[in-house]
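Anyone opening a protein record will find just a pair of labelled lines. With that in mind, the following record should read easily:
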Amino acid sequence: MSLKTNLLRLLRFLFGRCEQNSRWFYLVTAIPLIFSGLMGWEYGAFWPYIIPVLLCIVHFFYSTMFVWFIIFSLYFVWAVAYTYGVVNDLFAVIKGLQPGIFLGDYDTIVFTILFIAVVSITFGLFKLRPSKRKRKETGKLMGSDLD
């Protein structure tokens, strides 16, 4: 196979339309992003969240592996960072030091809800990853006609 054929396969794999069973889930993925952006509104932190929210909406209408990978990567890093923060804060509480996250009742409740949502969405994104659509007339996967 030539380099051009392989490049075309890669582009079709990344940007070709995929079959997505639970497209509504990508609208749910936008909710914590909007919520986090609104929490930082007065500090100007809302605008960086616009692009991931738009990607979630785009993926709802036109599912691709590339957009799924970006959304999954974002949520995976977010979940790892939150998990590190929670574990670090729990050790600080055990040692009798001042916690950074669990400062008061309101902070603890909001962060815990957001933590559970982010980790749940990360697992959901992994489980609900898109699959390549099959061609109805040939039964082959898209891009396999290059052989």
Observations:
- The beta strands are 18-19, 131-132.
